[in-house]
Design goal:
Elements lengths: L17 H40 L4 H26 L5 H24 L5 E2 L2 H22 L4 H7 L3 H4 L7 H19 L1 H11 L3 H23 L2 H10 L2 E3 L4 E4 L19 H14 L7 H22 L2 H6 L17 H20 L12 H30 L3 H26 L3 H30 L13 H21 L3 E2 L4 H22 L1
Antiparallel strand pairs: 1-4, 2-3
Helix pairs in contact: 1-2, 1-15, 1-16, 2-3, 2-15, 2-16, 2-17, 3-16, 3-17, 3-18, 3-19, 4-7, 4-17, 4-18, 7-17, 8-9, 9-10, 11-12, 15-16, 16-17, 16-19
Length: 531
């Protein structure tokens, strides 16, 4: 890192414009609130459905679509805030948004997602959770390696020295490129992780349990074969498993309709849902003249079938389908939400011009016949996110200068909340529907994106724009201390989850939220007073 103090001027406070002091702050604050809403609106209503439609048309796997493409789409605002802070406002808002956003996702979003889970219990897959936690931790180490220009020892030795905090943050293009390349490697690993998981499930168990583990692993893989290759045999086996026999409850066997032989062109039949099996049970019992089940027995059988199918549906549930299949929601974009209060109505009409501009310029792939415009919709969405992130960053910098708050503090708080709100809201929705493990791992995956792309790609773009010149526009401001806070959070959180048998419970919500508040308060004090 350079000791040249010329970069310090990039974050110095400037004089506050007179118009801001004379009432101009009101439209600025309203504009910040509008940017909060607009960034989330563009991501959820256009960006994520467009990514889902693109992956669906190109027959990409659901795992790859949900964990990488949709996760990346929800994290794009962080990247654009970082770019705007680097090139437009020349402030530390971008770096602060990454640090604050990671803590926000890891502690606040996961904590609040537990609250909306069924029974307020979030069950995690130990393999996937360990993978995402380990990769997130490694991404933090890569950031430390990058800011130290390849010298871990120097980074650790100088992390707590005030002279280091006042020096310039210098990043060479080789190290920023390494961050971007690491994210590409993570995507490849994520798309093929099922091979590693199957190997671990089959061989990392005692010999007495191995046969049962292999059988379970093979059964869990059958549905993936149906989705990826269209093999009828796996689906026929799955339907055989869903045929219900309940001798104890006096309900006769219900033979489910077998799919016809596949000719290579016809579409595969849909996997039976709970409702399909429920209807089959009722039809079978009503048509059985020898024995008719009582209503209690019938409800018991339906409950048992529902429980069995739910396990399979959890495996088959696709984040792509949940993002893309939203019915006629596109028709309600310009409509006032039902049961809106006075404040909601006022904000709706205030932001309506922006809502209408986005509606006119961005194709909605959920509209029938518009699926082929997914690429164009993604491009327009990226443009909108860039514009909105620039306005948000400029407004936050203006307010920070007026209130004499450093841009790093504005980044870890307001900018982090705004840029990570789409991912937060999406995690809440997914958790409410019983997919808490997906929500938790998506938060950790978003943090990996923030570290490797949210920081690495803007630094790399800076070197490209300025023809190989290293990024040296801002002070260090103790960035290593911020990364240490994230790494400590990772270790403590993983140990707690491990000791709780991979289950997050209601009592953990308050400690996680309080830990988030404490860490943000410490970093705000550190940036404002110490650094």
């Amino acid at each position: 890192m350079s000791t040249d103090s010329s970069c310090a001027a990039a974050d110095d406070h400037v004089s506050t414009p007179a118009w801001l002091q004379n009432g101009g702050f009101i439209p600025v604050l309203l504009g910040i609130a509008a940017m909060f809403w607009a960034i989330s609106f563009v991501c959820e209503e256009y960006g994520v459905p467009a990514l889902a439609a693109f992956c669906k048309r190109n027959k990409l796997s659901d795992a790859l679509t949900g964990s990488i493409f949709i996760g990346t789409g929800l994290s794009l605002p962080v990247f654009f805030v970082a770019v705007a802070g680097l090139f437009a406002s020349h402030s530390a808002i971008g770096v602060g948004a990454v640090v604050g956003g990671n803590l926000f996702n890891h502690l606040f979003t996961i904590g609040t997602s537990i609250y909306v889970c069924p029974d307020r219990v979030m069950k995690l897959d130990p393999y996937v959770f360990t993978r995402e936690t380990l990769i997130y931790f490694l991404s933090c180490l890569l950031v430390l390696w990058t800011v130290g220009n390849g010298h871990f020892a120097k980074t650790f030795n100088t992390a707590f020295q005030k002279e280091q905090w006042e020096s310039c943050l210098t990043i060479s293009w080789e190290y920023s490129l390494a961050l971007v390349a690491a994210y590409v490697a993570y995507c490849v690993l994520d798309g093929n992780f099922y091979l590693i998981e199957e190997f671990c499930r089959k061989w990392w168990y005692p010999p007495t349990d191995r046969a049962e583990v292999i059988r379970q692993s093979d059964n869990s893989r059958e549905l993936d074969v149906v989705e990826e290759t269209g093999e009828v045999s796996s689906q026929r086996q799955l339907i055989n498993q869903l045929s219900v026999t309940s001798a104890e409850s006096s309900v006769p066997t219900i033979p489910l309709q077998m799919p016809p032989e596949h000719d290579g062109n016809a579409a595969l039949p849909e996997i039976p849902t709970v409702a399909d099996v429920e209807q089959g049970i009722r039809l079978s019992t009503s048509s059985n003249n020898s024995k008719v089940a009582s209503s209690d027995d019938l409800n018991l059988a339906i409950a048992k079938v529902s429980e069995e199918i739910t396990v399979e549906e959890v495996k088959a549930k696709s984040m792509m389908d949940s993002a893309f299949d939203q019915g006629d929601r596109y028709l309600d974009i310009l409509s006032l939400p039902r049961e809106s209060g006075a404040i909601q109505k006022g904000f709706f009409y205030m932001a309506f011009p922006l809502r209408y501009a986005i509606f006119l310029t961005t194709p909605d792939v959920r509209r029938p016949g518009s699926e082929s415009r997914a690429i164009w919709s993604m491009c327009v969405t990226i443009v909108w996110l860039a514009i909105l992130s620039y306005v948000l960053t400029a407004a936050l910098t203006l307010v920070g200068d007026w209130w004499h708050i450093s841009s790093a503090v504005m980044g870890i708080t307001v900018a982090a909340w705004a840029s990570n709100f789409p991912a937060h809201w999406s995690s809440m929705v997914v958790s409410r529907h019983g997919f808490g493990d997906v929500s938790c791992c998506n938060c950790l995956g978003s943090n990996t994106f923030n570290n490797l792309i949210g920081l690495g790609l803007p630094w790399l773009l800076y070197s490209i724009v300025f023809r190989g010149q290293p990024y040296d526009a801002l002070q260090d401001d103790g960035v290593a201390i911020s990364v240490f806070c994230m790494m400590i959070t990772i270790v403590v959180h993983y140990v707690v989850v491990w000791q709780s048998n991979w289950v997050l419970r209601e009592w953990m919500i308050a400690p996680m939220v309080l830990a988030y508040v404490a860490e943000i308060a410490f970093l705000a004090y550190f940036y404002s007073v110490l650094a």
